[in-house]
Amino acid sequence: MQYKYEDYLRSAQYIREASGGFEPEILLILGSGLGALADCVADAASVPYEDIPGFCPSTAPGHSSRLVLGELEGRRVAVMQGRMHCYEGYTAEQTAYPVRTARLLGAGVMVVTNAAGGINLDYRVGDIVLLSDHIRLMGDSPSIGTNIKEFGPRFYDMTYAYSPRLRQLAREQAEKTGVAVREGVYFYFPGPQYETPAEIRAARVLGGDLAGMSTVPEVTAANHCGMEVLGLSLVTNMAAGVMDKRIDGAEVVQEGNRAGRRLETLLRACLPHM
Questions:
Q1: Can you give the pTM of this predicted structure?
Q2: Per-residue pLDDT averaged across 220-224, rounded?
Q3: CATH entry, 5-273, from 3.30.70.100, 1.10.8.100, 3.40.50.1580, 3.10.290.10
């Protein structure tokens, strides 16, 4: 199934009615173990994904599967407390569906966060990494199929997939708040299995600093429809083969919960200036 423009309009209208006509400026996507920020939204309206036409439920651990709309740090936000992944059986178009819907609601900026494995040998668990770019060698694009011209052109540029302006803003606010950040390239693996040590070595050779199973379809769709993107990863584990141990999914969520407060501090500092 491929969605039509009318499907997105229907979804946007449902959310608008469910939230009392709310029009967000910023879409904020919270990754594994990072959903607590949604509880800080003021005057919030909460809409389960299952109730929104076209949305798919999020089944990943640590994802609450709801859209929270309200104010955060003086900005009107739509917060995805949980996201969809291709490994859940969804297409790239389905995982990116909320992004295009948020664009119709008025969001011009997308902030996307994720839990990721550290490929870069200088990284440590708990590091926050500002995304400068990504690599996708596998997995579909959300733009496969008939182009919906109301969102953007058939062929579109990805040179500045992650906004230079927003990256500079994040660096400045990180310095002001004392939150240390690194900067790196996210390497997309569709999952759900974690990568093999050989795959991680190959990703490192190709320039990847982080490994993850999300983010790229959403960022791709956001660029197609003209949104500025800020991407932030939290290193919740070192990728396969970096350490002589197995990767535990429960530990990934736990580390996200443990270190997520620093990421929350940085995001809240950035929001008023976006």
A1: 0.95
A2: 98
A3: 3.40.50.1580
